[in-house]
């Protein structure tokens, strides 16, 4: 155990997780890890790993970079941002294929003034509901104390019951995928399969086989028949997760199926019927002209958006936040002081419920024998303040100005990024996947910098 008190605390925090977990710094160096990681990799319990480049046969750094790029959360150098990631990956561990869910969260090291990242690898087996590992969320994703959220959830429940296509919008961590899974679990197609398809995980090269399947001998290397993802979803639910990440070719292939309701396996002439309830999720704005990258097909958008709901971010659901804190405190017998609760309510929660889960896990380990948590316990996971990064003069400068809905949304995003990084523009730019110069131009254009500082 380290003689550094903070590092010793981090080591104890990581060791209590059942799944393989590690903490890395901004350069991908491993600060500490638990014994479960060594067990997953088939190494002795006392093994020490130094770099995410070499975890047995797993290049975790490459996986994190790819996931960050797929999610649009990377900086100009292609490094993962400090925002939370949640993705799946196919690994080869001890010469065996393993499907894993990889979840990340921020940890601050105030003593060394560096940003750390907690990474947790959860092996997913068939039929695993894939609940957030160790995280915390409302007792039911279909319940809320917030009126706008209740309205959205009620509409989603009715859409699932009627079999109407459903598009779920919301920031990362708001529970879009969890809601889709719950709608399938309680819906009329619950006895059939829920097939999940992430928009960024299907390469164009293998698209036809992955989506539609193939017969033996359909192409060189097709030594056995394969059932496609659409066929697996027959009679059940097809969840298209983060559809904005779909390649143009995948969008076109999916649109043909949704238009005709039919598809064929590669190499055969038999027409198969597509019968599934369609649910799509995205954290991006798919409306025309709203995206800086390649446009999402308008015709596919209208196919997906039969019924559209938006899950509000946690910062807009303060009643749900208070309810989560009350249930968590009661369940663990923990008594956070008033300063802790006030700080949690004031935080902007850019990672939403996913971030809340990790923060509460951290706080649980900071409680003393009587269950009391003091405010200094938050230093490791939250910035010192969530006060607005812009000065009052900057806010005053916007009086009388009119912003479009798109500009208002962009202002909110920029303000949230600055708030999450305590006003540090370099870190805020990195979290948004842009360089510092681009951030500066956006702040000027949207009047988030006072006139006398524009030089």
UniProtKB/TrEMBL annotation:
Q: Where is this region: Disordered?
A: 126-146
Report the Gene3D superfamilies cross-referenced here.
Answer: 1.10.8.60, Homeodomain-like, P-loop containing nucleotide triphosphate hydrolases
- Gene Ontology biological process terms in this record: regulation of DNA-templated transcription
The record's keywords, sorted A to Z, are:
ATP-binding, Nucleotide-binding
Tell me the Pfam families matching this sequence: HTH_8, Sigma54_activat
Q: Which InterPro entries match?
A: AAA+_ATPase (IPR003593), Homeodomain-like_sf (IPR009057), HTH_Fis (IPR002197), P-loop_NTPase (IPR027417), Sigma_54_int (IPR002078), Sigma_54_int_dom_ATP-bd_1 (IPR025662), Sigma_54_int_dom_ATP-bd_2 (IPR025943)
Molecular functions (GO terms): ATP binding; sequence-specific DNA binding
Q: Could you tell me which SUPFAM superfamilies the record lists for this protein?
A: Homeodomain-like, P-loop containing nucleoside triphosphate hydrolases
Q: Which domain of life is it from?
A: Bacteria
| Residues annotated as domain Sigma-54 factor interaction | 142-365
What is the name of this protein? Answer: Fis family transcriptional regulator
Organism of origin is Thioalkalivibrio paradoxus ARh 1
């Amino acid at each position: 155990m380290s003689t550094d008190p903070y590092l010793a605390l981090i080591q104890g925090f990581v060791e209590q997780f059942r799944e393989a977990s590690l903490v890395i710094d901004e350069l991908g160096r491993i600060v500490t890890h638990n014994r479960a990681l060594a067990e997953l990799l088939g190494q002795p319990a006392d093994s020490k790993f130094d770099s995410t480049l070499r975890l047995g046969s797993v290049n975790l750094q490459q996986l994190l970079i790819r996931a960050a790029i797929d999610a649009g959360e990377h900086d100009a150098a292609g490094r993962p941002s400090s925002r939370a990631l949640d993705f799946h990956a196919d690994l080869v561990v001890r010469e065996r294929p393993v499907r894993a869910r990889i979840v990340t969260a921020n940890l601050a090291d105030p003593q060394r003034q560096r940003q750390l990242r907690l990474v947790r690898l959860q092996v997913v087996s068939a039929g695993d509901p894939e609940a957030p590992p160790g995280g915390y969320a409302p007792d039911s994703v279909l319940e809320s104390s917030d009126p706008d959220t209740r309205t959205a959830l009620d509409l989603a429940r009715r859409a699932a019951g009627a079999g109407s296509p459903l598009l779920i919008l919301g920031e990362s961590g708001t529970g879009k995928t969890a809601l889709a899974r719950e709608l399938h679990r309680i819906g009329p197609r619950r006895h059939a399969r829920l097939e999940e398809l992430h928009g960024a995980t299907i390469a164009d090269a293998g698209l036809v086989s992955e989506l539609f399947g193939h017969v033996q001998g359909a192409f060189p290397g097709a030594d056995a028949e394969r059932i496609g993802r659409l066929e697996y979803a027959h009679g059940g639910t097809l969840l298209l997760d983060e559809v904005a990440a779909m390649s143009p070719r995948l969008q076109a292939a999916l649109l043909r199926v949704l238009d005709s309701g039919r598809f064929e396996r590669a190499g055969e002439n038999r027409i198969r019927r597509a019968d599934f309830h369609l649910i799509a999720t995205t954290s991006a704005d798919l409306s025309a002209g709203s995206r800086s990258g390649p446009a999402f097909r308008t015709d596919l958008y209208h196919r997906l958006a039969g019924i559209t709901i938006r899950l509000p971010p946690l910062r807009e659901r303060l009643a749900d936040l208070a309810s989560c804190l009350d249930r968590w405190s009661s369940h663990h017998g923990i008594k956070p002081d008033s300063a802790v609760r006030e700080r949690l309510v004031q935080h902007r929660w850019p990672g939403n419920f996913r971030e809340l889960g990790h923060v509460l896990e951290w706080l649980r380990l900071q409680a003393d024998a009587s269950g009391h948590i003091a405010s200094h316990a938050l230093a490791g996971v939250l910035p010192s303040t969530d006060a607005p990064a812009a000065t009052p003069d900057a806010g005053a400068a916007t009086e009388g100005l009119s912003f479009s809905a798109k500009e208002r949304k962009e202002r909110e995003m920029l303000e949230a990024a600055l708030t999450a990084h305590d006003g540090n523009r370099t870190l805020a730019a990195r979290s948004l996947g842009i360089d510092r110069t681009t951030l500066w131009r956006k702040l000027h254009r949207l009047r988030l910098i006072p006139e006398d500082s524009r030089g």
